[in-house]
Amino acid sequence: MVIVKGGVTAAKGFEAASAGAGIKYQGRTDMALIYSKKPCRTAGTFTTNVVKAAPVKWDRSVVESGVKSQAVIINSGIANACTGEEGYGYCKETAAAAEKALGVEAEGVLVGSTGVIGMQLPIDKLKNGIREMAENKNASLENGTSAAKAIMTTDTFHKEIAVSIQVGDKTVTIGGMAKGSGMIHPNMCTMLSFITTDAVISKKALQKVLSEDIEDTYNMISVDGDTSTNDTVLLLANGMAENEKIKYKTKEYEKFAEALHLVNEYLAKKIAGDGEGATALFEVKVIGASTKRQAKILAKSIVCSNLTKTAIAGHDANWGRILCAMGYSGAQFDPEKVDLSFESKAGKIQIIENGRAVNYSEEKATEILSQPEVAAIADIKEGTESATAWGCDLTHGYIDINADYRS
Amino acid sequence: MVIVKGGVTAAKGFEAASAGAGIKYQGRTDMALIYSKKPCRTAGTFTTNVVKAAPVKWDRSVVESGVKSQAVIINSGIANACTGEEGYGYCKETAAAAEKALGVEAEGVLVGSTGVIGMQLPIDKLKNGIREMAENKNASLENGTSAAKAIMTTDTFHKEIAVSIQVGDKTVTIGGMAKGSGMIHPNMCTMLSFITTDAVISKKALQKVLSEDIEDTYNMISVDGDTSTNDTVLLLANGMAENEKIKYKTKEYEKFAEALHLVNEYLAKKIAGDGEGATALFEVKVIGASTKRQAKILAKSIVCSNLTKTAIAGHDANWGRILCAMGYSGAQFDPEKVDLSFESKAGKIQIIENGRAVNYSEEKATEILSQPEVAAIADIKEGTESATAWGCDLTHGYIDINADYRS
Q: Where does substrate bind (chains A, B) (predicted)?
């Protein structure tokens, strides 16, 4: 497996484009297109929120229908959530406009939106954007990057990555782009991720590999515990690598899964580290667990704790808050067996042994916690299972973005 | 039912005292005593956190043993949590010191601690404090207030209340004090509440009335979603009102339950409104639910949402975040049936009807949300059940208290 340049256009046959359609933002791009020369098998995972945005409903029906997809149209600025029948109608119109401009089947056109809730899309502007992107699309890495930039909301940097693996004598590439917690009044953060691959892979294997991997990647990150109405991960495979078909549970499947995991983990970590107001990526590893589930519950509880997140913001080795967050997680464990360490580029330091503080240097701990990427490792000494969760610190910046936005 | 003056000393036969023992704070009181002339039946409810502080373990065994209690010794500054055998030993020593100083049975002495985690209590200072309080205790309302002040950590005001009801021809009084989310490095918020009553009431009725009421009061508040290792509510009944014994599920029981509810709700709301950094009490009512459980899950999800809490801090009628928080709560409902209003002293305004924004005045909404007590009312139009939760806004003050504490 090698990391290669680019994002959604890295895999064979994929093109991208962006446009400044003026949907809500001015002076920047706010639409992105992913186009495949050949129709793609498509897998998707969507928000579990009861309140689902129109694009989520639309994409789910496309993915479940099994129809092949050749284009994804994404906009930032307006989320098309809580917009009723009218909003769902705009998904249909978007697909129809893409059919007209790109010569693809409308039933297979996927859409994605992020931004303000409760506002209707200015559909004519969207249609203009689609026409513009149909003209400008190409397979360059620059166009892939421009698409990754166009979907940003309050993200402070764009997020993309690509990797290649060998499947038999063929090179298979997986590339992706994502956007994280952006907040635009009156709205919430939304996580969108779009992955493209030229692999030949069965429909079943494609959905399985995505559904299984998100449990260890996107579902293990938290910025503020608020699950958006729009969260979507889409995986498109156009088969242009011409490898022997990858089937579920084969050796080649495992290889593909590993590569997809690298892409998803990279994007998920970038989303976590770029959380609103974040100054640090906060990684939490729980090791020595009896079950994976127990490890996950504990890791997520720590990474979601406001008190722990503010301690990280303050570079404070506040182990009491971490033990506390483990304690209310709902998972069982023996607090008097817990070992806890902090680690970063500045070193590693043990803070707790068997549930009690060891005689550690606060100065060294603060130095370790002052890095832009910090990790807490909790060993509960019960078994061999482990899990990792990612989040960020909770800072004044988060309050600025989310409370003071209008004042 | 009438609200009367005072707190824990309002009921007959209860005395209180405070002392500045120098446990961790300097220049303020940090110990409180509640003493009853006659031994009390006692009920208690405790944190569900797996990590339980020593006083929680101690009190639970006292309450479960059925032994009568005549004194509660509380300290602020150090939580006596994650302190192992040594910490539990200090509960025992505290009880023994109280026996010696007050002439009460050590097995019935209750203890409470709040403050730093992982630090051992300076037991000699505690013993000095107990002796001092044994000398100074009296039944005055002032001493009750001084006890309520001594248990504060980062609370910005003390919290106490008392009510009286008639049971037959006797006056029964219930008084209480509580402390809320105080954060002292390296620690977490802790909720402690101590209720005294002179009622004659059966052991079973006493525990039932407390256990049932906390579900609608203390368990419906949230400051930051972090459940402490020390959370404790104790209810002591000394029987000195000489009323006919109150038994479970009788008419008199309901009357007593109503009075206790007023006390608990008052204290719970004060704790929520005095959350760290809070500038507003945020009340959430979910009405029109099919079940009480559904209403509670929805109300708590809204009140715990960081995005909603920052919106309240910004006086922002951000209904998208509220619908979103309802959506990920885990409770089922139809988003397209939801009506939502905001209400405060400045008026009431409807924001959503059937899941869609109505044409409301943002200016009026901001005016309503700029009050120190604001409410959101969500009607899900399914049935007749309802629930109320209380929290506070999430502000720069919370970050200041919890992140910048040491810098």
A: 153, 179, 190, 276, 402, 407
